[in-house]
Amino acid sequence: MAVLNPSENLNIKAAGIFAVERGLDGVAKDTLLNWARRAEENHRWTEDGTQALFTNAGLRYMASSLKIGPGFGRFSWGAA
Prior knowledge:
The protein is an alpha+beta fold. It has 3 helices and 3 strands. A 3-stranded antiparallel beta sheet has the order 1-3-2.
C-alpha cells in the first residue's frame, strides 16, 4: 500500500514562495496554494504520524520519502 499526503513542510507561505520561484501562475499556482490551504486547515503528515497511521490500520510501515518540490508531499508505503 502506498499513500501520498501533504507533509509538514506544506503551508501557504512556503507554497507561495515556491510558486514565485518556479514562475507558476494561473491554475498551477491556484492548485498548489489550494492544496497548501487545505493542508493547513486539515492535516499534514510527519513521519511519526504516518507510521502510526499504518500501525493503526494493521499495516507494516516500510518507509516514506518527501516529494514534490521542496518536500511538500510525503510518499509512504507499507505492507499487510
